[in-house]
Amino acid sequence: MKKTILITGATSGFGKAIAIKFAQNDYNIIITGRRKDRLDALTRELEESCNVIVTPLQFDVRDNDQVIQAIGELKKSVPQIDILVNNTGLASGMSSIEEGDITDWDKMIDTNVKGLLYVTRAIAPMMKHRGSGHIINIGSTAGKTVYKNGNVYCATKFAVDALTQAMRIDLLPYSIKVTAINPGMAETEFSVVRFNGDEERAKKVYEGINPLRAEDIADVAYYCATLPAHVCINDITVTCLTQANSYYSIKEADRQK
Ligand code: NDP
Ligand code: 8X3
Predict the structure, then answer these.
(1) How far apart are CA 23 and CA 28, in angstroms?
(2) 122 burial type by CB count under 10 A (0-12 exposed, 13-18 middle, 19+ buried)
(3) How is domain 4-254 classified at the CATH fold level?
(4) What is the pTM of this model?
(5) Any catalytic annotation for residue 153?
(6) Catalytic annotation, pick one of 27, 118, 147, 153
(7) How high does pLDDT run on average in the chain?
């Protein structure tokens, strides 16, 4: 029987690349996000190119009623979810704490922390009941080291780190693996969202650094998910060659070759 993976935030970036990677490797896929046109397009693309079942679920992770409704419906047609990737997340703005925009703060906390909790709360009981499963949380280097003006975004990713550790302890008796993947800078729609659609400013973030690509993180997720049953990667931090941590990176041109 094919395994099933549910990936939140699969309409772009890491989530989309993870969906493609697992579909290409014969997993049935459940993809979620708010942009229905993108969910439908990816469903068509994967169903045409891979012999797997793709189920799109449109909901906003910040709304627990929507999460419960969508996962409740899903349970009627999908017997089990083997892997949950809590990938949905965003940064909104980048300013010093005393100038921060409260709407940005709410958006990040509600999406990155509460959204991850709502989805986990809806799916973990199914894994507990079955006595197996794997939850992969996408954290960040921002959840390991704080950087200037990253304040609330970093705090949400520190929370993801703490929740990953907590989930692993709580779910240990039920043979549920819990893994955090903490990427460094990767060129997705992340910075365009962070800077409210300002593509030029977003591009500048990655200028001269050869950042990670979404596919790199999909490869890491696939590696973590396909290890033997007795092996659980707890925490993995992945950066591009020119980044050491959240605040220290160099330009490609400054690399000794
Ligand atoms: P993208 O902006 O490309 O993708 C974010 C995904 O999250 C989209 O599919 C978006 O879908 C979904 N999403 C956002 N808000 C909501 C919401 N309220 N409800 C449902 N879905 C939502 O960014 P990335 O792929 O880069 O980001 C994925 C994760 O990786 C995030 O958690 C981010 O914090 C983390 N990360 C990113 C890094 C980077 O440098 N890119 C580095 C480290 C971590 P839609 O808009 O359709 O709802
Ligand atoms: C995203 C990476 O460095 O932009 O989590 O915060 S960073």
Answers:
(1) 6
(2) buried
(3) Rossmann fold (3.40.50)
(4) 0.98
(5) yes
(6) 153
(7) 97
